[in-house]
Amino acid sequence: MSLRRSLAVSAVLTGALLAAACNPTLRTHGYRYSDGEVPEFTVGEDTEATVLDTLGNPSTRGAFEDNTWYYISATREYLAYLRPETRDRRVLTLRFDDNGTLAEIEEYGVEDGRVVAFIDRETPTRGRELTVLEQLLGNVGRLPGETFGGEQNLPGGAGGPRPDGS
Questions:
Q1: Is 133 part of any domain?
Q2: Fewest beta carbons within 10 Å, which of 37, 95, 103, 112?
Q3: Which residues contact 147 (CB under 8 A, 6 or more apart)?
Q4: Furthest CA-CA distance within the chain
Q5: Is 48 a domain residue?
């Protein structure tokens, strides 16, 4: 009886572990406000200070225009060993005029995103490229001049005082 009971317990535990491994894990990154709590901003009235009070610091600012603020949030789903998948993304773009007053509001979602194909190229370096054999045999026959030229091999390199006082 105890053998059957231990097999049954181990089968239940194994099934529970397998079921837990298949459950997706959702991770939220960035600023998220609760559903239905959409912040209301008025173009021409709200300022940088009122936006900071409502949303806090932006996720990032424009690279070329410091007066453009981006609030970015994303929800990603992780499932076991598979690549994570973005379920929801929201980018709130706020542009301010020179006086710090809100001039424009735009919102982007997952459907507005585009896949960017990166080109993996290497920039060539100057000089010639050595083959493996040239790299291995390149120093054969070359001896450092100071080793046999009367200089002593001092600990810590060639710097420091010499025994002859020079």
A1: no
A2: 37
A3: 153
A4: 91
A5: yes
| Residue corresponding to tokens 């054969």 | 140
Give the rounded distance of the alpha carbon of 30 from its chain centre. 14
Q: Using an 8 Å Cβ cutoff, are 61 and 68 in contact?
A: yes
Tokens 């810590």 appear where? 156
Structure tokens at 58: 């932006």
For residue 85, the surrounding DSSP H or E stretch is strand 85-96
Give the global pTM. Answer: 0.54
Looking at residue 55, its pLDDT comes to 86
**The predicted structure's pLDDT at residue 48:** 92
Give me the number of domains the chain comprises. 1
**CA–CA separation, 12 and 74 (whole Å):** 36
* Distance between CA atoms of residues 130 and 12, nearest Å: 61
Put residue 137 in one of left, alpha, beta given phi > 0 → left and psi -120 to 50 → alpha. Answer: alpha
Show the low-confidence residues of the chain (pLDDT under 50). Answer: none
Contact yes or no for 94/41 (Cβ under 8 A) = yes
> What phi and psi values does residue 91 have, to the nearest 5 degrees?
-120, 115
